[in-house]
Amino acid sequence: MCRMLVLVGGKNGVRRDFRRKLYNSLIRAARRDPYSRRLFGEDEESHRDGWGLFAAKIGEAGVESYTVYRSLKPIFEDDVEPPFLAYEGPLVEMIHARAASTGMPVNMFSVHPVEASSPDGYRLLLIHNGSVDKEGLARAVGASKREKSIYNDSYFLARFLASRASNLANASLFEEAARYTKTAMNIAAFLLSPEKALLVVGSYYKLLDKPEERRGYYKLYIGRAGGSIVYASSTIVDYYNPAPGYIEWAEFPNGSFDIYKVSGAEVVYEGRISIGDYQ
To answer: Which of 165, 163, 158 is nearest to 198 (CA)?
Structure first.
């Protein structure tokens, strides 16, 4: 039960006014989400259980700097602007506004992006919309009872992906992860190591008992504008379109994940993997 936004800035950079429009549309979607109300009920209209972001500046050496921000305040009550707003070069940005699923903790450990490390020392940062099998993933990564009391399902998904980091660009990993999905595994994951940096953005959701309402809520959009790529939760586009006439939006295929590699001063699209058509 979350709203998310991912920006992949092209080699020609990103205009700051464009980033601000995207950010403001996410704030509006988090404050009032008609899709959430339709699927979950009148009391579930806002995403107020914290928010966070990851932003990385890309330069000649690859990832030159990055920042992570998390807050337990709702994004629509916080007064923090996106970092690097004056920077108009290539970047990767992931922003997430959270509405905690029933039974999940509301604490700083559960605000996205959640982080995990791979056995090889890679660092993975994840934002996630939907719910996955926390108990099953916790068993898969050998988590303790104490850890299960502190962390949410998305954290154990991050640990699961990090434990298989060398396979992050392969469909087999997401086919394996999909077996733990309860409602949706809409994600953006950034993997950072001294040798490489990868970004994976994708969508997998189940229609279950309310196919129309679930598709409305969980569908992901991809947009292109001025050499930049944007991925956005449905509410952002359908109700609060941040740049009408400027961004060319399309619905992202369910069961698909896009792969990007940071190469020099660029974020290069590596292709799309599919784990099947789940519509």
So the answer is: 165
Cα separation, 262 vs 198, in Å, equals: 6
- Two tokens at 254? 């369910």
**What's the confidence (pLDDT) of residue 279?**
44
* pLDDT at 277 (0 to 100): 55
- What is 2-274's CATH topology? Glutamine Phosphoribosylpyrophosphate, subunit 1, domain 1 (3.60.20)
pLDDT digits (tens, 9 = 90+) for 159-207: 999 999 988 989 999 999 999 999 999 999 999 988 889 999 999 999 9
Each domain of the chain, given as residue ranges in start order, spans: 2-274
Distance CA 223, CA 7 (A): 9
E strand segments, 9-167: 51-59, 62-71, 91-98, 114-117, 123-129
Using alpha carbons, select from 257, 260, 259, 226 the residue that is nearest to residue 243: 226
pLDDT tens track for 95-135: 999 987 766 777 788 899 999 998 888 899 999 999 999 99
CA 130 vs CA 7, 134, 218, 246: distances in Å: 20, 12, 8, 29
